[in-house]
């Protein structure tokens, strides 16, 4: 999280016209800005290979996936890889432009050190969002026909994601109050909710059927209300579980990887074409999210070269909510979001003003030791520091992402042991 310096609202004096035209000279502040640190590809590329090699093994050798689905997933993966390369090349260019418009911040968790006085470009999530949308739109040419049943919902999903990127960038520029931020995802989810033509039923858990009286319950409009609330939760949950370098993007990467594995397992285990296409639909939207986020993480990992801004957190949260809704695995998605759920519940007293809530609920940084100390603010970041002691920012982020990965593994384990009994 960054304390962003806002552009001055005082209009500049008009430049006086001189007879001799001179070329514009860079300002002193521009000349003093250090160049952007190179991406940490030596870390990101091997870590990505550790996931994608087993992932493609499952796709091509372990599961008997329909050839047409396998082809579509492979094309989407190739386009997503291209998105990774484009994002790595675009971020340094975009960083220069946002710095010129005074969209930068100072890293509070490095205050008192030389790194704490460096201008860090902010709102670079806009680059990820644009590249993601281009990939998702172009992919329609290879997978959908004009009469496809999925095309309307696919475009509605993209409209919701695009709407959320716009609102997130508006928030970064205008610094919208928190109470307004809370409802923004509800507006962004409207295209998806209006176009949704899927079922509105839920399967009652087997132990509860004798009390409810039916095995399948049609919720009607209540189900769509639940979908809207899920979109609101996912976007805000990613946004408030933040504050240290790499955490916002890192949690998205871990959850996206878990979603891909879950979808692939469901495709391999089911013989229902409609069910398989629903999970393949989810894969088409998550693969570019994962690769573009990995590219952003190469710049945002400690020490961060760029800040992602609310543009990215809103975009990532909405994208994952959309795939959970249209892939019909919202319960599993909430289990993947277990750390975010805990962080939200722990934050509620401050979020709803029951106890005072500061602007930045960050840990205290000691520039002498380079360690972070947890405060009494209700966030998972501070709770980890209070439970496990002082830590460097990098070590703390690794611990939180490890907890995120354990939560995803817990979800897979629960689905395995409850299969056939719960539903």
From TrEMBL:
It comes from the Eukaryota. It is found in: Endoplasmic reticulum membrane. One of its GO terms (biological process) is dolichol-linked oligosaccharide biosynthetic process. Its cofactor is Mg(2+). It holds the Pfam family Glycos_transf_4. Residues 1-34 are annotated as: Disordered. Its EC number is 2.7.8.15. CDD domains: GT_GPT_euk (cd06855). InterPro entries: Glycosyl_transferase_4, GPT. Pathway: Protein modification; protein glycosylation. GO terms for molecular function: glycosyltransferase activity; metal ion binding; UDP-N-acetylglucosamine-dolichyl-phosphate N-acetylglucosaminephosphotransferase activity. Keywords: Endoplasmic reticulum, Glycosyltransferase, Magnesium, Membrane, Metal-binding, Transferase, Transmembrane, Transmembrane helix. Residues 18-29 have a biased composition (Low complexity). This is UDP-N-acetylglucosamine--dolichyl-phosphate N-acetylglucosaminephosphotransferase.
